[in-house]
Amino acid sequence: MKHLLLSLFFISCLSFSQTPCENGFAGIYPCSGYDLVSEISLSTLSATASLANDSWGWTDPDTGNEYAIVGLSNGTAFIDISDPVNPEHLGTLPTQTFNSSWRDVKVYNNHAFIVSEAANHGMQVFDLTKLRNVNISTFLFADAVYSEFGNAHNIVINEDSGYAYAVGTNTFNGGPHFINIQDPQNPVAAGGFAMDDYSHDAQVVTYNGPDTEHVGKEILIGSNASIVSIVDISDKSNPVSISTTSYGQVGYTHQGWFTEDQRYFILGDELDETEVGFNTRTIVYDLNDLDNPVIHFEYFGPTSAIDHNGYVNGDNFYLANYRAGVRVLDVSNIAAGEMTEIGFFDTYLANDSANFNGAWNVYPYFESGNILISDIERGFVLIKKSEEVLNVSEVDNEETFNIYPNPTTNYLKISSNNALSSIEVYNVLGEMVLQETTSLKEYTLNVEHLSQGVYVLNINGKATKFIKS
């Protein structure tokens, strides 16, 4: 039984975040159900950057280390988050030509592919495996630059096919520009498709949804300023339009994402909140038939903030909601026309109004459960879902402990109905930082030398936590 308790303890310990969400706040940040793990200011990422923009993530397949990639107005920052509480800014890849408020990055085959709306920027290719051995906070250099287009608003990658799709470029009327990136440092132009409208963002999948007519095909769904376009791009030399659709009270058709089963498409409009005046609106399409998209329902959030980028992971939809931070919605009952907010983390403190500040992007795909937010003014913010702490009542009803004060500054008083024997303190990485033995029922533990943060107490083989303030 003791070994089981200790195993549970270490699992619980490794999931702890640095600043828990308690009573509606994680430090200075309003929150519900999500803790603050760490943050790095915009000025630390790059002293001359005026803002942060898009973001993505990479997990090293050899080491399992996780890295955050954050777009800046003057380049792209790379951050090692293998120790999520103490992230390291490894370096910044400067913009290829000029600074720009818009930069986008995606990852394929251990390489980052970066585009910008800066004139003549093209697509930078950066070998992410170099991050294993770089000096801290250095300038990095692209391994290749693709220059068949100049500016682009966004880059989309289908990892199944090894193709990238630059959208909003100065080619193909702003439609997708196809690039073969199967050999990442030797990208090859592969054509493109001029859509009915400028393509602001897109998602490309090897389709495995309910429409059997299109299963196995490479399908692009574009958020194209005023319409949604669905295109079969399996044959790069002969793309075929499947359907286009729109919706009422269009402001700016911005970005969307398939549900895991590829039945529903969750779409955001970036300007409808300001032009119409309602709360954050999300439009859900039923794509049971790709040739005949149908609006399934509309979801309205609790604030008037503008919605920006959203991504689905499992049954959750993670929405970067500008001044309202990141909102997390349960979409498990989307077939019944329901989306339910189950948590949030708000990085913009002043208000939740409809303006362009705060959370630009969210990346929710790290296996660790850490969630990356790129915030326009703050830079890098890492959060994690709050988790139940393994406490005494969950483990053993025969022995109970009291610890106080919690949070504490210098001393922690521990009492038990039975004699205390071993007291161990672990940090959030599972490293033991303090150990005491006693035979008393009451004990005063000196923790004044510990840094601020969350720690785990292992008392007589049972775990709880305390906060050093």
UniProtKB/TrEMBL annotation:
Residues 1-17 form the signal peptide. The keyword Cell cycle does not apply. Residues 403-467 form the Secretion system C-terminal sorting domain. Keywords: Signal. GO terms for cellular component: extracellular region. The keyword Transport does not apply. This is Secretion system C-terminal sorting domain-containing protein.
